[in-house]
Write a structure and sequence with these properties.
Elements lengths: L2 H11 L6 E4 L1 H13 L6 E3 L6 H8 L4 E3 L11 H8 L4 E5 L11 H10 L3 E5 L22 E6 L12 E5 L1 H10 L7 H12 L5 H19 L7 E2 L6 E5 L3 H12 L4 E2 L9 E5 L3 H17 L1
Parallel strand pairs: 2-3, 2-4, 4-5, 5-6
Antiparallel strand pairs: 1-7, 6-7, 8-9, 9-11, 10-11
């Protein structure tokens, strides 16, 4: 891994280079967390509904999973329950903003989990740039040696094809992740592209600001469809969780009749009739709302 990239990331985030590890996307780093700290006899705590890959990777290394469900109405995290589960956990993952519900977890809650957990607490902040200034919990790294913070270039920096993610953590955590990583997991071209992204990160600010603004406008437009059974939840990410009648049918018709692709979460426990809509351009957002209105007006 390029020392130049690690140093640049460290300077950006106000940590030392030995607190940074880069991976082949956030997914590789997530899997390495389970390789390093999971396994038979070790416990993972998750907070569903959330990113399904956590359970998948835990299963691949035979890590038992303890699920602390979110509030079924608001999807807020039950921090007290997570803290209790964390007391005997080897890994706790808190996703902020959560995917697919979009809510942030307050720093106080993350701190409480770190204090309770004898193992590693991973804050998955893949979408954090859309959460606004001060949303990241990485300021807690100096206080909690068991905290790790996951970032990626795939979302706000629009570089998903580069396959570059990174974790900020205590040097001992970084060393454990480095011990299980595959050789040559990140190629030199990806590292070079990421280094350009780090150096030009301010150039992405207008795009992020536009998405945040459009997110608010999209919420307002969808709230205008409440009489048709549409409900949205507040989001700090670049997507919205939306509940609407016959979600699977709506999703199929959006694809087949309007060439609009959305994610169908209606079969996920706790997310009946829910779709996840990515915030697009103003024109795209207008089109998806018009299409949803047209489809629901017919059913």
């Amino acid at each position: 891994m390029s020392d130049e990239l690690r140093v640049a990331l460290a300077r950006w985030h106000g940590v030392t280079a030995d607190q940074v590890i880069v991976g082949n996307g956030g997914d590789e780093l997530l899997f390495n967390v389970f390789l390093a700290f999971g396994g038979p006899g070790r416990t993972l705590v998750t907070c569903p509904p959330t990113f399904a890959v956590y359970d998948l990777y835990a299963g691949l290394v035979d890590t038992p999973v303890v699920s602390v469900a979110r509030d079924p109405e608001t999807f807020e995290l039950d921090v007290d329950a997570v803290v209790e589960a964390a007391r005997t956990a080897n890994v706790v993952i808190v996703t902020t903003p959560n995917n697919p519900t979009g809510d942030l977890l307050a720093h106080e809650g993350i701190a409480r989990v770190c204090e309770a957990c004898p193992g590693v607490v991973l804050a998955d902040e893949a979408y954090i740039e859309f959460g606004g200034a001060g949303a990241s919990c990485e300021g807690l790294l100096g206080t909690y040696d068991n905290l790790a913070v996951l970032h990626t270039f795939s979302k706000a920096f629009q570089m998903a094809g580069v396959r570059l993610g990174y974790v900020l953590a205590n040097p001992s955590v970084v060393a454990a992740l480095a011990a299980v990583r595959q050789p040559y997991s990140v190629n030199v071209f990806s590292q070079a592209a990421a280094l350009v992204g780090v150096r030009m990160r301010d150039e992405f600010a207008p795009s992020i600001a536009s998405i945040v603004s459009e997110r608010s406008r999209l919420v307002d437009m969808l709230d205008g469809l409440a009489s048709l059974g549409v409900r949205t939840w507040p989001s700090a990410a670049n997507f919205l969780l939306v509940r609407l009648p016959n979600a699977s049918v709506v999703r199929a018709r959006l694809r087949d009749e309007y060439s609009i692709l959305v994610r169908d979460f209606s079969s996920t426990p706790g997310l009946a009739d829910c779709l996840r809509l990515t915030v697009g351009t103003p024109e795209e957002n207008d089109e998806v709302v018009a299409a949803v209105r047209s489809i629901l007006s017919e059913v």
